[in-house]
Each structure stands twice: as C-alpha cells, then as structure tokens.
C-alpha cells in the first residue's frame, strides 16, 4: 500500500480562514480566527487522509524572483491587515510544538517549495503526495502520484483533484493548466496573459491545439479578434507562462523521514489550544490521538469556539 505525504500551503489556508471566519478573540483579547481556521482545516485533513508524512510550507515576506523579473507582480493586491500577520507566529508556534517541519525559502513562494518537495518525493513510486491549498496554481502538479486537496466551507468539505477531476472541472489535463493561465492571465497575481481572452476562450484553444506552442504554430488557422489578440500579445503570453510555472528545484534541505507524521505528538498542542480557548478543536484533536486522554485529566475550560 502506498504511503501518503501531506504538504500544506500555509499562507493559502491562513488567508482563507481569516477572511471566512468572524474576528473572534480570546478572553485576553487576542485575535485568533485565522489560527482556529488553519487548525480546523488541518485536523479535518489529517482525519480524512491519515498521512504517513506531514510538512507545512510558508511564503517568505521578502519579494521573490518573480518580482525581480516583473515589478508589477501582485502589485494590485490589497495589503492584508496587521491583525492577520500577527497570527502567523501563533500558527508557527503550534507547528513547532508539534515538531511538524516548516519549509520556506527566501526568493521563492510557498508554491515553488511545494512543487520542489513533490518533485523530490515523486522519485519514490510508493508515496502519494497530497497538496492542501486553495490556490489553483497547484493544479499543474497533479498527476497519478500527486493530488491537490482544496478545502471548502470552513474545511469541512474538501475537493480532491486527481487528473480526472481536473479534466472534469476545467476540460483540460493538468499539464495544460500552465498554458491555460498563461493565456487567460491572473488578476489576483496581476499576470497579464492575453488580454481579451478569458477562461472559455483559453479552454477552447487548448482543447484544439493542446499547448501554447501548438496555438502559435497554428496561428494562421485562427481568425478574427482572437487571431489579432494572440498575434499582438505573443510576448505577453510567453512571459505569463514563465511567471505561472512553478519552480521544482528550489534549494531546500528536505529529507522525507524528517516529515514523518506522529499523531501521538499532537497531544502537545492541547495546552496551547486551551490557552487559545479552542474548545471544539480540542475535542476534534483528541479524536485523532492514538492515546486518548485519561478521565482524570484536567477538564477543558468552556469557550465560545
């Protein structure tokens, strides 16, 4: 039976949780909605997939190589409030308590680190990789050994993308996702693409010509406004292709055995969860522990969440 590695895109989950949940605080006034949402999703995923290995990847605050080649990269994004960033330290504090390895690399995004880890692990055919993220960029990694788990509805409903699910959702194979985004662009990352060609147009082109190269090799077959847009924005299309392609050789020190998932260690989070007043999460966390808490253990104090 194949073993399972879960790789968590921390920034994606944290941002999703922060914006999805109301801004609740502990009795001491600490805002913890993103912390709660992150661990709610993580516990749900661990319960469902039951991995053998677990790693968490973060973005680094400094700019990446994409900013160096394209100063407008993500330029239109509204800066997240300080109340969100203040919760990152708490999330990392819990991960370190649990001895879950954290991977991040200056100059690269978490997506690139995830792609690199997946590439290293795929050399072992006995390991399947589950990338937990709400970022659709990761769908380019999907194959028979790597899946994307997209949390939804507060982490209680998770869509797992295998190659068939990608085709069902987009009408394209996973290896076409890069060119799909290269054509239609990405407003959230401020990637230009071919202005005027959206999701439907990009899908139709790739279903017929398979790749960006294939489209331009048959440009004379394409007529009307689409021909004009593609012809005038060839450089933008190929530049966008480079921007959306995840790097798979980030220089990180990765050893699979260091990511071994030890559910018994998750009991170490109970005191922190009590401090954060995560009553419901404590109950859910206790269910995944191999050794259940004793009846005489200190009872959990009541809280609002």
Record keyword descriptors for this entry.
single chain, 305 residues, alpha/beta, DNA polymerase, domain 1
Please tell me the total number of domains.
2
Spatial order of the strands forming the largest sheet: 3-2-1-4-5-6
- What is the arithmetic mean of pLDDT? 91
CATH topology of the largest domain: Rossmann fold
CATH architectural arrangement of the largest domain: 3-Layer(aba) Sandwich
Can you give the helix content as a percent range? 40-55%
Q: How would you classify the helix and strand content by structural class?
A: alpha/beta
Q: Which CATH first-tier class of the largest domain would you pick?
A: Alpha Beta
Would you list the SSEs in sequence order as H and E? EHHEHHHEHEEEHHHHHHHH
Shape: globular
Strand tally = 6
Low-confidence stretches: 295-305
- CATH H-level homologous superfamily name of the largest domain: 5'-nuclease
Number of helices: 14
The major pleated sheet works out as: 6 strands, mixed
Task: Give the SSE layout.
Blueprint: E1 3-9, H1 10-20, H2 33-49, E2 53-57, H3 65-69, H4 82-85, H5 88-97, E3 102-103, H6 110-121, E4 127-132, E5 146-152, E6 157-161, H7 163-170, H8 177-184, H9 199-209, H10 212-217, H11 224-232, H12 234-244, H13 270-275, H14 279-288
Parallel strand pairs: 1-2, 1-4, 2-3, 4-5
Antiparallel strand pairs: 5-6
